[in-house]
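Quick question, first post here. What does this chain look like in 3D?
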Amino acid sequence: MMPRQSVAAWVWMVSMVLLAIGSREALAQATAERDSATTAERDSATTADVVIAADDRRIEAMTRVDAAALDAILDDDLHYAHSSGTVDTKDSFIDLVTSGRTKYLEYEPHQRRVTFPVTGIAVMAGRADVVVENDKGRNAFTLSYLAIWRKVRGQWLFHAWQSARLPPSQP
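> Answer (accepted):
Ran it through. C-alpha cells below.
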C-alpha cells in the first residue's frame, strides 16, 4: 500500500501529464481553428458581399413594388417587426407593400455590417434612411436595424427584421 503522500504525488503527476497532453491537443486544435478562421474570414468577406447583394434586391423589390421578387427573397417564416411595433409575416408584408398601404419611396442603407454566428445564418446590423408614404402621410426617418438572413437550399432568404427610429440629426 502506498503512503498518502505518495498517492497524492502520483495523482498530481498523472494530472500534470494529462494536462500537458490535453494542452498539446488543445494547441493543435487552436492552430487548426486559427487556420480555418483565416479561411473562414476570407470566405465570410465574400459571403457578406453576397448577403448585401441579396439585401439590395430586397430593397429594390420593396421600392419597385415587385411581389414576385419579394416572394422569392423573403423567408416563409419571416418575422418583420417595424419601428412602430407592428409585426408582419411574409404574406402580410407582401400585402402591405403591394396593396399600396405603405409605399417605400426611398430606401438608402448605410453602415451595413454582416457577421455569421453559425453556418447558414447571417446577422446584418446597420442604418437606413427611409421615406415611406402611408395613411399618416409622407414620413422620412433614419432607422437602426438588425436583420437576420438564412441560407436555404443555397439561397440567402430574409428571415427577420427589427428596427428602431433614430432621432433626427441636429445641424
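The radius of gyration is 25 Å.
The first helix runs from residue 4 to 63.
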